[in-house]
Design a protein that fits this description.
Elements: E1 8-11, E2 14-17, E3 20-23, E4 26-29, E5 32-34, H1 36-43, E6 49-52, E7 57-60, E8 62-67, E9 69-70, E10 73-74, H2 82-93, E11 98-106, H3 110-116, E12 131-132, E13 135-138, H4 162-169, E14 175-180, H5 187-196, E15 200-203, H6 210-218, E16 223-224, E17 254-257, H7 266-275, E18 280-282, E19 295-299, E20 302-307, E21 310-313, H8 326-337, H9 341-346, H10 350-356, E22 373-376, E23 383-388, E24 391-395
Parallel strand pairs: 1-6, 2-7, 8-11, 11-12, 11-13, 13-14, 14-15, 15-16, 16-17, 17-18
Antiparallel strand pairs: 1-4, 2-3, 4-5, 7-22, 9-10, 19-20, 20-21, 22-23, 23-24
Helix pairs in contact: 4-5
Length: about 400
């Protein structure tokens, strides 16, 4: 009886690797992508399972760094069934090709953090849902002048640096990103402290000058939260945080951008990706109304009204996140910028992985990387199936 090799081979497929779509088989074992030469020449093994992809496209799984909820779940509001809510969203995201995500909490009252944060644990994905990479905390250490949809009564300064951060959030073990305004008192010390803990710092909801932004980058920040939104508009004498796209900082600055067709004009998308192509990270910034019809919802303590797919703070015309999933944002981004298919897909996979420093295992289809990937219709970019650690976790209905 032939011994099983544990190998799965995807043949007749086009795969995205190193910025190019190539015709090549994909080999999987033990949740990792492996080098077929090792199998042929060293082990002399054959695949246990062969899957004919019929010229479909295989791309790295999408990674959403900023998502506030969806399908009626609000990560900042629902305290009764936190883990159940995260599981629901994680499961629904599989249909959109998202294999990893960062549940995002907006500015909230202090008590919410102590209840919600301990319950959103980092969790490996599978058939139960996408991988939870860690929580993205957006606020309350932001600028009142650029609060956007955040509740003004809970906004504060991180006067005592990391100590202020801990006083509000509590234990930081489940946290992967903190968004703050770098011009606030104590912010630079907070950035240094968070960075030393391995937590990524994003700059956003801010009135910062370019000098403020550059100093924050020197202190460890490496991200900008939803570029163009909730920050000073570009000015030729002081371009503000937008100027970090063309700054002479020593390291790459990544920036989230919402390409839902509402938040960012197509010309602004083109300016961003042509100025700093390597740093662009597509995010959904989706709210609890994602996947649901127009109506009334929440985002943290705020009431939200969704009209024709646009989410506003109730009674205002203040946008408060999108109702689009990441796969939709990819399609709209490609249409708006006329960029290559390879670039659009990497902006939602490789770039966010680089921003988090996990591109050694995620965001790529290179050998020894996690076998997290999406099989797409190459013409429509519709998600046909989603795979995590080499296991099929979603198949589109026929």
């Amino acid at each position: 009886m032939k011994q099983k090799s544990g190998l799965t081979r995807f043949l007749n497929c086009n795969i995205l690797r190193d910025g190019k779509i190539i015709k090549e088989d994909l080999w999987i074992r033990d949740g990792k992508i492996i080098n077929p030469e090792q199998v042929f020449y060293d082990e002399q093994q054959e695949a246990d399972v062969s899957i004919n992809c019929n010229d479909l496209l295989i791309t790295p799984g999408y990674i959403d760094l900023q998502i506030n909820g969806g399908w009626g779940v609000d990560f900042s509001f629902d305290t009764e069934n936190v883990e159940e809510g995260v599981r629901k969203v994680a499961k629904e995201l599989l249909a959109h090709g998202v294999t990893s995500f960062c549940p995002t909490m907006v500015t909230s009252e202090k008590e919410k953090y102590s209840i919600i944060l301990p319950q959103i644990k980092k969790l490996q994905g599978g058939k139960h849902g996408a991988t939870v990479l860690g929580v993205h905390l957006e606020g309350p250490f932001i600028s009142l002048a650029k609060k956007g949809a955040h509740s003004h009564e809970f906004i504060m300064n991180p006067d005592k640096g990391l100590e202020s951060i801990r006083e509000v959030y509590g234990p930081l073990g489940n946290v992967i990103i903190v968004t703050l305004a770098p011009e606030l008192p104590g912010a630079l010390d907070a950035i240094k402290g968070l960075t030393n803990l391995g937590i990524k710092v994003a700059l956003g909801h801010s009135s910062a000058s370019l000098a403020d932004g550059e100093e924050a980058v020197k202190c460890g920040a490496n991200l900008i939260t939803h570029l163009f939104n909730a920050m000073l508009p570009f000015h030729h004498r002081d371009p503000g945080l937008v100027g970090l796209l063309a700054s002479t900082t020593d390291k790459q600055v990544f920036y989230g951008i919402i390409s839902d067709g509402i938040h960012t004009h197509p010309a602004a998308l083109r300016i961003a990706c042509r100025t700093n192509s390597e740093g662009l990270v597509l995010v959904s910034d989706a709210v609890p109304a994602q996947g649901l019809p127009d109506g009334t919802y929440t985002i943290g303590p705020q009431a939200v009204s969704v009209d024709k797919g646009r989410a506003y703070i109730a009674g205002t015309k203040v946008l408060c996140g999108s109702t689009s999933a990441l796969d939709e944002c990819i399609i709209k981004f490609k249409e708006a910028t006329d960029c290559s298919l390879e670039y659009a897909l990497e902006a939602a996979s490789l770039h966010p992985a680089k921003a988090l420093g996990i591109d050694n295992c995620k965001g790529r289809l290179n050998y020894q990387c996690d076998a997290d990937f999406v099989i797409l219709d190459p013409k429509t970019l519709n998600v046909l199936s989603t795979w995590i650690a080499g296991e099929c976790v979603y198949t589109a209905p026929k």
